[in-house]
């Protein structure tokens, strides 16, 4: 029975860690006024009829704190890249000079910063809900084991460990949100 509890705890930790990684990926996509090539992650370009990741058809560079340069490997991809950036609605208008595309990040207004903080908070809340759902599932597994003969003390200890792990990951979510908020509020 203790192997089952260890397996439940290991699975719990692994799943919660994936939740934190997802949160980190989502927070990176929320731009904080600084140019970041990861803003374009998940952006697909029509490459001869097949949707292809933008980083597979072009070189993406950060020229300075507010400028991203996208230089396609094939010149005829300029329009397709520009079109996909416009369709992605990332809040930046691409500037096409015939050789490369530049994205100039406008400085964030106070109002926009607050909107972005709200968006980050919503992502954090989703992560917390996911973590709590994982906790609930793990506790249900422990209760099922208890019905199958696990002692009440062992079940209480397992539930305590599950709660401690959950608390640790909720604090981690809070730290990520605080760091992102601080980054976004810096002018």
Shape: elongated
- Report the average pLDDT across residues: 87
Strand percentage: 5-15%
By CATH reckoning, the class of the largest domain would read Mainly Alpha
Largest sheet: 4 strands, antiparallel
CATH architecture of the largest domain: Orthogonal Bundle
Q: Helix fraction?
A: 55-70%
**The CATH H-level homologous superfamily of the largest domain:** Ribosome-recycling factor
Q: Structural class from helices and strands?
A: alpha+beta
> How many domains in all?
2
Count of DSSP-assigned helices: 4
Uncertain segments: none
Number of strands: 6
Structure description:
This protein has 187 residues and is of the alpha+beta class. It has 2 domains: 2-29 and 109-185, Topoisomerase I, Chain A, domain 4 (Orthogonal Bundle); 37-104, Gyrase A, domain 2 (2-Layer Sandwich). Helix content is 59%, strand content 15%. The protein is built from 4 helices and 6 strands. The chain has helices spanning 2-29, 78-88, 110-147, 152-185; strands at 44-47, 50-53, 58-64, 67-72, 94-96, 101-104. Strand 3 (58-64) and strand 4 form a beta hairpin. Helix 1 runs antiparallel to helix 3 (110-147), helix 1 (2-29) packs parallel to helix 4 and helix 3 packs antiparallel against helix 4 (152-185). The chain is elongated. The model has no long low-confidence stretch (mean pLDDT 87).
């Amino acid at each position: 029975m203790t192997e089952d509890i260890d397996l439940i705890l290991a699975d719990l930790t692994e799943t919660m860690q994936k939740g934190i990684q997802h949160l980190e990926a989502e927070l990176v996509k929320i731009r904080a006024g600084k140019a970041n090539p990861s803003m374009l992650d998940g952006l697909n370009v029509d490459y001869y009829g097949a949707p292809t990741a933008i980083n597979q058809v072009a070189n993406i560079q950060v020229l300075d704190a507010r400028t991203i340069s996208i230089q396609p490997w094939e010149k005829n991809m300029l329009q397709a890249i520009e079109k996909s950036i416009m369709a992605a609605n990332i809040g930046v208008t691409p500037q096409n000079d015939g050789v490369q595309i530049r994205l100039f990040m406008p400085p964030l207004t106070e109002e926009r910063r607050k909107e972005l903080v709200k968006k980050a908070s919503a992502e954090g809340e989703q992560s917390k809900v996911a973590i709590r759902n994982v906790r609930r599932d793990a506790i249900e597994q422990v209760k099922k084991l208890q019905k199958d003969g696990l002692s009440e003390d062992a079940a209480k200890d397992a539930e305590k460990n599950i709660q401690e792990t959950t608390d640790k990951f909720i604090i981690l979510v809070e730290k990520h949100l605080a760091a992102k908020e601080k980054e976004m509020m810096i002018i």
